[in-house]
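seq as requested:
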Amino acid sequence: MHYHPNSDTKHNYKNNMIDTLKYSEKFKKAGFDSNQAKMLAHSFAETVEQVITKNNENELAIKNNSKKLDKDLLEIKLKLKDIDLKIEQTKGGLSKEMEKIKGNLSKEIEQTKSNLLKWMISMFTGQAAIIIAAFFTITKL
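struct tokens:
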């Protein structure tokens, strides 16, 4: 099998220069013939290119995921602020309602006290009248 690489002996992979001629010479020194050494050097360079490309794709995917996570986090924070605002509004409404109920209960308690006091006075008056009537009845005898 004969490999005929193009005349370019260097591959540029985003600022990473692979000197295929240098690797070809190393393969020749290791016992490969010239065509095998060139083919291995170019295959090595292509493999490095694929690894770098895949790494770049992974970095881009990570950046995109990070941006999406940042966006999702921002949305969650905004929703939490909205929930906090609704909670505060509800607390304010509940506080007003509780004050209103407290005022109504105070009025009802005062009214009950007044009614109880009237009832007690009526009972004492009635008892006093019965006792006086009984006393006059007994003393007439």
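Residues 10-118+134-140 form one domain.
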